[in-house]
């Protein structure tokens, strides 16, 4: 058998295993049932001295890893903000591996580069963003935030008379960052990576989750010089949106200039529906936007996207040159000059397939279905004794808690921690715990394309059965 026939055989084996997995996805428990020690005992072993047949290897891995697989792509996984994979996205992702393009330089795959460029344009059309903005497909919203903030860092540096990407930050004036108390951990991580500091962000009050515009204006007034502002379109606990038009107005009023970055990891999908588009009103006035593909676009991990108004700032932040990779005359758009990576996976094909297969209407319908599921669950929580909403459900996240009439605040917090654990251990539905405005609660996110009202009924029933005690 030649080497490519072996690949064919391995692919057939993988296809069979994957087909069975996907078929059973809706029925799988959504939680894992294994300790780290047990999983290590199942999977860990010395490097095999001799090889095995690829199909058999995959089958063996599945059998060993099974208790550690989380059906997070399934319809009853309401934890974090995880999406699933639409049929076209999943198939496109497979094909991307089989074709195995290096989607870094134009030179190594014009097909990958042009496909990504088209995906970026389609996404801008879907979200009503200016088509002339630059962008990049990333590995997720954290990297998208990093891309937008790197371009912003470049812009602020330029106003202050230096080039951060070339000169570094040492000995240069500080780059101030203003956001709200609800800035996501991912934006902080990006700021830390960029040398701007996680701990130096000036955090303005955000009662209810959305930044207080007067407080923001007051904070900016205390900043002498250009500034980076990070706004939220879809706060992770409640789905709350900053008033982006208001924030951009405040930024425009800052005499030395402000770069407005919006973390819109999942919230940007509100713009895919005329019903919810008002929530993102003003996002088109931002300087950069970071968002996610593996959340509400429902493409497999990993995928995100970033958009930047000033393409020069983006290119300056991520310029990479070398005699052997110079694009040369006649070359097209070079992905690697717009993001942190050089060689990289052809993520664009999964996103292209997903968008092509559903089109604008398909995505609008899916977003609306998800929001209806979320709103239906939120109504049920509001009407059901024993549970209560911790915040209004703005879009697709429901933040709620278990209640007991006789319990004081610390006991309620304990009970809700126990309730989250009990829901997770049940394996029927997966939700995540959180703390919202000092109170321990539970959050459910609705952004999986395959979730049906029947799945939401399973969630209601699981929450309705909760009878927790501390220590349980
Ligand atoms: C608002 C927000 N920003 C950023 C992120 C980080 O996304 P990722 O894990 O894809 O990097 C998340 C993830 O939940 C999020 O909700």
List keywords for this structure.
472 residues, alpha/beta, Aspartate Aminotransferase, domain 2, 2 domains, 7-stranded mixed sheet, 4-stranded antiparallel sheet, 14 helices, 11 strands, globular, binds pyridoxal-5'-phosphate
Summarize the structure.
The protein is an alpha/beta fold and 472 residues long. It folds into two domains: 3-30 and 32-69; 91-355, 3-Layer(aba) Sandwich (Aspartate Aminotransferase, domain 2), CATH 3.40.640.10. The chain is built from 14 helices and eleven strands.
Explained architecture:
The protein has 472 residues and is α/β, with parallel strands linked by helices. The chain folds into 2 domains: 3-30 and 32-69; 91-355, 3-Layer(aba) Sandwich (Aspartate Aminotransferase, domain 2), CATH 3.40.640.10. The chain contains 14 helices and 11 strands. A 7-stranded mixed beta sheet has the order 1-7-6-5-4-2-3, with helices on both faces. Strands 8-9-11-10 form a 4-stranded antiparallel beta sheet. Strand 8 and strand 9 (397-402) form a beta hairpin. Helix 5 (110-126) runs parallel beside helix 12 (348-383). The longest helix has 36 residues, at 348-383. The chain is globular, with a radius of gyration of 23 Å. Pyridoxal-5'-phosphate binds at residues 80-81, 140-142, 184, 186, 234, 236, 263, 265-266, 292, 304. Pyridoxal-5'-phosphate is lined by residues 80-81, 140-142, 184, 186, 234, 236, 263, 265-266, 292, 304.
């Amino acid at each position: 058998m030649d080497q490519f026939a072996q690949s064919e055989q391995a692919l057939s084996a993988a296809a069979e295993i994957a087909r069975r997995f996907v078929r059973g996805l809706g029925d799988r428990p959504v939680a894992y049932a294994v300790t780290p020690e047990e999983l290590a005992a199942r999977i860990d072993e010395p490097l095999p001295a001799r090889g095995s047949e690829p199909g058999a290897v995959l089958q063996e891995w599945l059998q060993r890893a099974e208790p550690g697989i989380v059906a997070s792509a399934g319809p009853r996984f309401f934890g974090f903000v995880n999406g699933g994979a639409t049929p076209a996205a999943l198939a496109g992702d497979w094909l991307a591996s089989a074709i195995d393009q290096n989607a870094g330089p134009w030179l190594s795959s014009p097909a990958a580069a042009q496909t990504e460029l088209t995906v970026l344009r389609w996404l801008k059309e879907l979200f009503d963003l200016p088509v002339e903005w630059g962008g990049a497909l990333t590995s997720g919203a954290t990297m998208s935030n990093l891309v937008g903030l790197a371009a912003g860092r470049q812009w602020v540096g330029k106003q202050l008379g230096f080039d951060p990407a070339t000169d570094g930050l040492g000995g240069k004036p500080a780059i101030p960052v203003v956001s709200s108390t609800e800035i996501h951990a991912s934006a902080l991580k990006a700021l830390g990576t960029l040398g701007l500091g996680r701990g130096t962000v000036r955090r303005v009050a955000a009662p209810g989750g959305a930044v207080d515009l007067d407080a923001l204006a007051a904070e900016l007034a205390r900043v002498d010089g250009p500034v980076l502002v990070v706004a939220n379109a879809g706060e992770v606990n409640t789905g709350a949106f900053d008033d982006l038009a208001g924030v951009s107005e405040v930024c425009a009023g800052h005499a030395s200039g402000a770069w407005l970055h919006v973390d819109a990891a999942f919230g940007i999908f509100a713009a895919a529906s005329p019903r919810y588009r008002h929530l993102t009103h003003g996002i088109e006035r931002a300087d950069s936007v970071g968002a996610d593909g593996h959340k509400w676009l429902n493409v497999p991990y990993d995928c995100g996207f970033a958009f930047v108004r000033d393409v020069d700032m983006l290119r300056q932040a991520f310029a990479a040159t070398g005699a052997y990779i110079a694009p040369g005359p006649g070359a097209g758009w070079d992905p690697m000059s717009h993001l942190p990576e050089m060689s990289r996976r052809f993520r664009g094909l999964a996103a292209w397939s997903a968008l092509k297969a559903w089109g604008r209407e398909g995505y609008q319908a899916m977003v609306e279905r998800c929001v209806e599921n979320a709103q239906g669950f939120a109504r049920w929580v509001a009407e059901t004794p024993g549970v209560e909403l911790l915040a209004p459900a703005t879009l697709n996240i429901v933040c709620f808690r278990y209640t007991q009439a006789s319990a004081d605040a610390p006991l309620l917090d304990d009970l809700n921690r126990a309730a989250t654990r009990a829901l997770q251990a049940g394996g029927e539905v997966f939700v995540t715990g959180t703390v919202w405005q000092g109170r321990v609660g539970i959050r459910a996110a609705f952004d999986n394309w395959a979730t049906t009202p029947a799945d939401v009924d399973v969630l209601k029933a699981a929450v309705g059965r909760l009878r927790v005690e501390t220590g349980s």
